[in-house]
Amino acid sequence: MSDNRSAGTEAPVSGTALPGKPEPGQPPIDIDTPTYRGDVIAAALCLGFALIVYFLVIPAQVYVPRAFVGTANSPAFLPKLICILLAVLSAVYLLNSIIAIRREATQGHARMSDWAIAGGMVAICLAYVGGILALGLPLASAACVAGTIYFFGERRYVLIAAIALILPALLWYFFVKVANILLPEPGLEILGDGSAPGIGMAAIVSVMQAAGQIAGQMAGLS
Amino acid sequence: MIDFSVLSLSISQILSWEVLLSCLAGVIWGMFVGVTPGLTGIMAVVIALPLTFFMEATSSIALLLGIYVTAIYGGSVTAIMINTPGTPNAAATLLDGYPLARKGRTRQALEMALYASLTSGILSTIVAMSIFPVVAAVALDFGAPEVFAVIVFSITIIAGVSGDSLLKGMIAACLGFLVAMVGQDPIHGSSRFTFGIPDFQAGVHILTLLVGLFTIPEIIARAVEAFRSEEKITVGEMGPGLTFREYLRYWPTYLRSTAGGSLLGALPGLGGSPAAFLGYFMAKRFSRKPEEFGKGSLDGVAGAEAGNNAVCGPALVPMMSLGIPGDTTTAVLMGALVIHGLSPGPLLFESAPDFVYSVFLLLFVSLIFLWAVGLGVIRVAKWVVRMPTKILFPVVFILATYGTYAVRGTMVDVISMVGVGVLGFFMRTQKIPAAPFAIAFILGPLFENEMRKSLIISGGSLDIFVHSPISITFLILAALSAGLTVFLHRRLEGTAAARMIRD
User: Fold this and answer.
1) How many CB atoms lie within 10 A of CB A161?
2) In the beta sheet, which residues pair with residue B388?
3) Cβ contact, residue pair B192, A125, below 8 Å
4) pTM for this structure?
């Protein structure tokens, strides 16, 4: 595999450093600079994903009419083919990365604070989704845009408040009044209307059912 | 060939204030929708459709064509400035447009996108007008195996946009293929990977995926950048404009992309996104500096934008000559014609030739208005470029969420957008390229659909793929293209050129 590491990897190989550990005093690298350790994790995840999809998800989630079992026209044919290809490519990727780690002793590491910031932004995204389900889109957007601008480091509170009020109001006006698109309303998505579960609850129930199916498949395999 | 007496009649028909103002209104509305992430051209056309009930046929088609043409270009503005494709057609534009903006060459990228769009729009409309009956006949020769061969050829672009690791690019493409398979099976209609969630029956929407794959990782990366720097960070600089000499330098790219885009436009069901990727691919393949692609190449922007805009004119040909809409937007346009008592199909040219020419002339008028409005938008763009990222990206996040929700009105799309975004960010940290993922997602369903239709026709025999000269030609081209890319990757590996590309 071609080498696309950070400057840190080009440091002379030290016999004392442990594989994958940074040299003392080595400068941290950017979060989007790949490392061999990261490559190993990514390759292992891809390989695991391909195997899980092939052995567990496809049998549970792809219905194949009896007449098409084992043919190229089966709905499962291409997904299986792609999974095999993904598994082979991921195995090569994994092998290359493991060999690279063993060959090259030093490696840079991204700052933990960078990962924490990235994690914080992901948490904001997830909270926003939860907020939309609980509060509705306009209210959740007001809270999210204010929170995100603050998270990005802006401290002019009047400006933050103005954007948090004006932006969702304008968007609400455009989507609801001009484009006639109904926006999610508070609570409905999770709680439903009392007689039937809402979309959010239905999704949770469906995922749990699918997980049950997959667990059944696993039991069958073992 | 063109009948000039009918053409002069058509010119007199479209030169009325009502028609021209309708067209201008369509262009402005199309631009607004195009630059708003998440709003698509089809949505803009559908919103405007009820207005046309009260308008005369030529004015109503002027309004809708103005929207159709402009929304395609408008999508590139946000793709270049904030790495967010305004419409799916702009997915290939951001590959080089955004790196150009980051290098402080925003104005050049925006102007190149505009002028490439105008050039290919004009050329493809001339092609469509001149060889209207011929194109319709050629399009009829394209059955499932031929379309499959074209898709296989287009898929070889994955190797070209994989950056310095073909392996990672192919892994990303496999993931894109798998995500594309969520939803109904294209032949049997049975569910695949829907996990019992009804909203997944229609699959993951392309806009959801593009926003998730490109916008969310960019927002997360910008959050990290904003924390680390005390200085005011902006997207980039407007920089210098495009010179006439630079515009002229990329004429071969415009011509190649126009040819590819016109062909894909005339084939029903393909649309602008594959045409943009094909244009980008050809631009890279023939470029003297392929190593600049993905890092800020004007040639890449020219190829992608010329490709997607070349679709407009030819896409109207099967709609008007055969009654087959090329994509969803032309299907709505066809509906507008029917509302006004016109029947698209083989008899339209016989019964209303002046109207057919008016439609093509209105495409030219739309392009002229697009030029004026596009230059205005580029002037306004400097305010966006100067906006601090700590304000801009949170606002973009909210806009992207509204747009993603509005496409189908379901929260599943918003959840998918965030999920794909987190995946995209982790791919970014390991330099697993997002472009092959997006290309496989766009072309995957077409690939599977045409392959399986062909196999049904042939009763399972693979011979069908090498029966016609068209499919043989494209399959050979695909093999040559893939082989050449792999060969170049292996030759470059470990060389100074590879290090230059990497750095």
Assistant:
1) 12
2) B234
3) no
4) 0.74
